[in-house]
Design brief:
15 helices; 315 residues; MetI-like_sf; transport; transmembrane helix; dipeptide transmembrane transporter activity; mainly alpha; globular; MetI-like fold
């Protein structure tokens, strides 16, 4: 198990290093002067010179890249020009919204999708299977911001059970904070649950045709035990793959939902930084999201090995 983990960690570090080169290079090849892009066309020469010095734009490219990497390793993501505060503080402030939102959405998506996928696979070709997969197809086709608008109208405007937007902060209490994340979590979870349910059904159908499943049924094992104890575990590899991809999407792809619900998360921070041309913030947040995706992929690989021990020696 230790060699398996070591290989995965080394692969993750190499991927992160390559990603840092790509992110840095993309900002380097952008046309125009970054200082002029951030300050605007009407900026004075003195202000431009000061910002170039602050950003280190007068140094050679390799010096700037090494300095940036060393800063990331020590937690120095630079200082935001727009907010006049360290980027790491902005990220920490927004992550306490985006991370719980992504976790709640993933848990909700999993709690819906896996039972639905197993239910549909166990009733293949029947009306329940058709209805379940038809609903899943609708969930895949409808964008999450449309779900968000419908949820706001029903539960916030009509029934007035939850707030339509905004976030009171965790200092206001656990329940007010969770209450503000209910609708965004559901809006994010429903399309992802539809995708995961279809994948779970397909994986279960492949496993249910195996000989050991027929043997278990022939021995009189209850159908529920066959589905949940034997079939599901052997169908988990593709399900875990989708779960890893979904968590990465939920963490990095919440820009639309956070703007619909006015949540002060990482997605909204990136959106505001792009519109305000705060490239330092964009650079820092993108690298953090890349690192999060790589970390999730490593966790998924470890889960592969736990589910199927044969992968430890073959990986």
């Amino acid at each position: 198990m230790i060699p398996f983990l070591a290989r995965r960690l080394l692969t993750g570090l190499a991927t992160l290093l390559l990603a840092s080169v790509v992110v840095f290079a993309v900002l380097e090849i952008l046309p125009g002067d970054p200082a002029l892009l951030m300050l605007g066309m009407n900026a004075s020469p003195e202000a431009l010179a000061t910002l170039r010095e602050q950003l280190g734009l007068n140094d050679p490219v390799m010096v700037r890249y090494v300095s940036w990497i060393l800063g990331l390793l020590t937690g120095d993501f630079g200082r935001s020009f727009t907010y006049s505060s360290p980027v790491i503080d902005l990220i920490a402030e927004r992550a306490v919204v985006s991370l719980p939102l992504a976790v709640i959405s993933l848990l909700l998506s999993t709690a819906i999708a896996i039972p639905v996928g197993i239910f549909a696979a166990a009733r293949r070709g029947k009306a329940a299977d058709t209805l379940s997969m038809g609903a899943a197809q609708v969930g895949v086709a409808v964008p999450n911001f449309w779900f968000a608008l419908i949820l706001v109208y029903i539960f916030a405007v009509w029934l007035q059970l939850v707030p339509a937007g905004g976030f009171p902060g965790w200092k206001a209490g656990l329940w007010p904070g969770l209450k503000a994340l209910i609708l965004p979590s559901v809006a994010l979870a429903l399309p992802q649950a539809a995708i995961l349910a279809r994948v779970t059904r397909s994986a279960m159908l492949e496993v249910l045709g195996e000989d050991y499943i027929r043997t278990a049924r022939a021995k009189g094992m209850p159908r529920r035990h066959v589905l949940w104890r034997h079939a599901l575990r052997n169908a988990m590899i593709p399900v875990l793959t989708i779960l890893g991809l979904q968590f990465a999407f939920l963490l990095a792809g919440t820009i639309i939902i956070e703007n619909v619900f006015y949540l002060p998360g990482l997605g909204r921070l990136v959106f505001q930084a792009i519109t305000q041309r705060d490239l330092i913030v964009v650079e820092g947040v993108v690298m953090l999201l890349v690192a999060s995706v790589i970390f999730v992929n490593i966790v998924v690989d470890i889960c592969y090995a736990l589910v199927d021990p044969r992968l430890r020696s073959n990986a």
